[in-house]
Design a protein that fits this description.
D-glucose binding, Nucleotidyltransferase, domain 5, 5 helices, two-stranded antiparallel ribbon, Hexokinase_BS, transferase, Phosphotransferase, Hexokinase, extended, alpha/beta
Amino acid sequence: MKKATVGAVVVGTAAAVAVAALIMRHRMGKSSKWARARAILKEFEEKCATPDGKLKQVADAMTVEMHAGLASEGGSKLKMLISYVDNLPTGDEGGVFYALDLGGTNFRVLRVQLGGKDGGIIHQEFAEASIPPNLMVGTSEALFDYIAAELAKFVAEEGEEFHPPPGRQRELGFTFSFPIMQTSINSGTLIRWTKGFSIDDTVGKDVVAELTKAMQKREIDMRVSALVSLLDVAQ
């Protein structure tokens, strides 16, 4: 009986050792494959890495091209348009501000209340509307009248806490994502339409002036304080 017990123990121990050996061999095999994979990736990374010196050359060359493009029209292969933005936000800004973003078949209006450095963004809300297809190929007056009408609805929904102090106009930032030639921080003439728009009588006109006329017709007490053009590379 004792011999049988000892034999069973020996067999069980041998089986456990064999299983452990298989597990260790499998893990070592996986570890070896992982080590080889890491070595391949490291070699690939090293061969693809761009030296810091070369990156600086590329950055310097791009800076030169940007300056050349801003200095004269056609002076660079880069498409450069002056923005007239000469400083950045400080974080101390306070009050209620509006934004209008016309970037394609949809446009958005935003109202944001800033509380300065300590308050940050106190409140914000936005609305979005689609541009009817017929207005994308109609007239400048019809397009901007439609935009002003939607903006008027949005302004009408604001609470009393967002009303500007007496004698002060609401301020609007206008993002116009089409090629324009800016003449100041809040004016710029349309060079050409893209993104499915084709309104001939807007080309060469000041888009801020067009929007301002439409807002005045709707009796919206608001002025465009900044114009921003965001262009796609393909444009």
